[in-house]
Amino acid sequence: xxxxxxxxxxxxxxxxxxxxxxxxxxxxxxxxxxxxxxxxxxxxxxxxxxxxxxxxxxxxxxxxxxxxxxxxxxxxxxxxxxxxxxxxxxxxxxxxxxxxxxxxxxxxxxxxxxxxxxxxxxxxxxxx
Length: 128
Description:
α1 packs antiparallel against α2 (59-80) and α2 crosses α4. The chain is flat and about 60 Å long. It has helices spanning 33-54, 59-80, 96-102, 105-119, 123-127, and strands spanning 13-17, 25-29, 81-85, 88-89, 92-93. The chain has one domain. The protein has 5 helices and 5 strands. The protein is α+β, with helices and mostly antiparallel strands and 128 residues long. A 3-stranded antiparallel β-sheet has the order 1-2-3.
């Protein structure tokens, strides 16, 4: 073990390299106490409603639950993706909003997975 002699630095972002889109990097905000609270507030009501609808037996309930699940995924990406490097969408700089509206779905899924992995929320916290 080495002794730390100077100030430490904590970086608030993680850069994830896309496997689906070589050369593309997704910059994800790391979780902090305040960001965790913000995320939980954003998804709490939607997740509770989705869980209720998933328990339903009708096709409409399942469809509504699926729609709410997609809304939660959108919130994760909006909340956690700070920047996307190495790609543009329809000639515009890539960001979370552009990825959601005009970006390739496989890149969206990668960004979503990166945000969820870095958020540190367990499945119960994601549902609550």
